Write the structure tokens for this entry.
Amino acid sequence: MLPTQLIAELKSTLGAANVLTDKEDMITYSFDATAGMPSKNPDLVVCPNSTEDVVAIVKLANKYNIPIYPRGSGTNLSGGTIPIEGGIVLSMLNMNQILEVDQDNLVAVVQPGVVIQSLNNEVLKYGLIYPPDPGTVTTATMGGSTMECSGGLRGLKYGVTKHYIMGMQLVLASGEVIKWGGKTVKNVSGYDLTALFTGSEGTLGIVTEILVKLIPTPEARQSFLAVFDDVDKAGRCISAIIRNKIIPATLEIMDNMTIRTVEEYAKIGLPTDAEAVLLIEVDGYRESVAREAEQVLKVCREEGASDVQAAKDDAARDKLWAARRAALPALARVSPTTVLEDATVPRSRIPEMLKAIRQIALKYDLKIGTFGHAGDGNLHPTILTDKHNAAEMHRVEQAVNEIFTVAISLGGTLSGEHGIGMAKAGFLNMEFGPAGVDVLRRLKEALDPDYRLNPGKIVRRD
Amino acid sequence: MSEFQSLQEVQHEVNKCMKCGNCQAVCPVYQETRQEVGEARGKIKLVEALLEGQIAVTEGLADRFLLCTTCGACTQICPCGVRFDKIIMGARAEAVRHKGLGSIKKYAFTALKHPKLFDFGLKTGARFQSLAFKRVSDKGGRARFPIGIDRKKIIPALAKVPLKDQLPEIVHVAKPKLKAAFFVGCMTNYIYPDMGRALVDVLTANNVEVIIPHDQHCCGTPVYANGEVATAIAMAKSNLDIFDRTGADAIVLDCGTCTDSWKHNYVKLLEQDTSGYKEKAERWAAKTYEISDFLVNVIGFTPENLGPVKRRVTYHDPCHVARSLGITKEPRLLLNSIPGLELVEMNDPGRCCGMAGSFSLTFPDLSDKILAHKVKNIAATNVDAVATSCPACRMQLAGGVENASLQHDVVHVVQLLAAAYRAKVQPKDQAAK
């Protein structure tokens, strides 16, 4: 139970409508989009309207010694927003204004509650885009995706969220406000706080303003579907495309299980007997797209694609990408629980990773469909299971463990884009070793010694 | 069993939800409140907690289940195919089984159950309404006194003579190719008889005899949508008996929500019935048509008898027509077939207008905020009329454009069609009204 005095103080600061206390509401903030995580009701949900509100909340939380869990749309896949120790959920969605779009400096300033797609819709008016495009682009917030360092389909050519963050305003665990970065391309003053705070999962500070980089909308694009009767050939093709100095905006793979499931669900006309397909898109100036398109066709044929088709028009392109977007929904319909992993390896190791995942599926008798961002090595082995089946869930745990082990042994990482949160906190040692994990802990404790902000995520207080 | 009888029936749908939150992108309620309880995912979590026995049905829980326009946008977009439309109906029915209805609704629904009393009340109301409502335009009036209705809200005037009192029980045509029974929804009967007359005109222009049973009454949507299943079952049975007596080949309606009752929900409500009503409901469900569906897909509508109606029109897709019935092409085909009529698509024509029956009375501010998006999209099209296929949407949109000081007429598609038939017969009368 929270002190009634705290609730009264919050209500007088924020207005009663911005302080939720009913049990029915707490239940709706006890979870996020991550499968297989425990739910935990917060004691309170507060919805600040300004940086000043956030400061007031942090100071009250310090006064009453209560944890705070910053939350955007709650669409993350790492258990990153579950209020696992109880306390205050800080819903940032009322701070949803695009404060500035600066065409001369190619930047925008946004509040954390802005949905990524809303920013894109706004800057498109100026012929600009904000490239990071996680699958949740129409729901996830700028604050959430900044703090998770979201990736997406365009990572290979355009990078991920951290490559677009130029500055932030943050409220620290102490209640102090810091502001850093700016509209300059170059800025080496002090330590690189972009690298520190982007992807910090709300454990180091609460972001209240974000300065992001924008780029001009590519003039033209061309998409391809390449079909392979052998996963190794598809893997070699990925490397060959890059070796030939072509950097597609998007280079995606789907394995046979995914292809069959998507085809059954969406009837798009995918080759169900293919072992793998690559979906490729190059973009840029019209002339360079034409030149790269020729090369993509040539490389795919050389690498043994049994078929390569270039999308003839926008409708054909949309159909191709509809197939890719249908991957997760189609797999998710097969069974009640969908465990979506994002173990990532260097792109040259993709064939080995795909093979290992297939062996793991056999070994633990699980259905695993794999698709993902092949061009940047970020695969999504998707385990189709049922959380009510305890025996199978145990095998899922073992399989996930083994997927992580393989990814790291191939020079990869636990998480390419979903983050560590609660889901992978226990595995950090595997990637960093005890000394490495200790560095993470010391960073956390330097900025948040009381584990006030999003406790239980990344590094735990033991 | 269906979701109306037992909450267990939605367990499977609840299990399918992977909590991805994609529903946030389309939920009109969530877009305004930005709270988890607004969207489908949050309410599914509550139903889950209820099924697992973590919470009981409280007043607070029942209120939260009402926080949904039942627009169906989440069900349409859901990657896992979760039928939230079923979950919300099941949750509301469960709430009523445990808590009963709120007192205002109980009063209103008792009247709906007794059609004569309801009819008398509304006719009396039509005579005395100027005492309570200040007429602001031909679209209606605002409440003069705070009588529990938002005073900004434009409430259309009740018709002086309800539709059923204006029409005979059978409107004959020379050599009918079909006999259609017209289910007159409450709003058409008491508020918009012009729509109902237009529907009859269009049907007769297509050589269809129209039967209008005068003892028909409310379809029951407001009752079962709020979870009051027992009353809805009684109303469904009574309507089925009344229409059985018509011997009609089909039922035709000008309201997507009433159509949804006849086409889907009567069957579900009567699923456990063993006295023949289940079969009756199934029989009529197969012969029930929204008017544009009936014209285009049943009787082979052709545009040759249409005269010109020179108007720029945008079309609003009612939730229950577009998503519950899957009808979006037919109304557009009809509008495009009218000579001189230019159809201009608005942004997001399928976004809920915020009316949602009693939702707009329970949450007037929220309803207005949802409406504001629609009005903005309408204003951007630069048209002079808004067409739709639902009397409730018409009422909401008419209020919205009026309060925004826009000059649009808001009409049913069938009214524009009727005007086009009139324009052919009497070329001088080209007005669409």
Chain A has a mean pLDDT of 95.
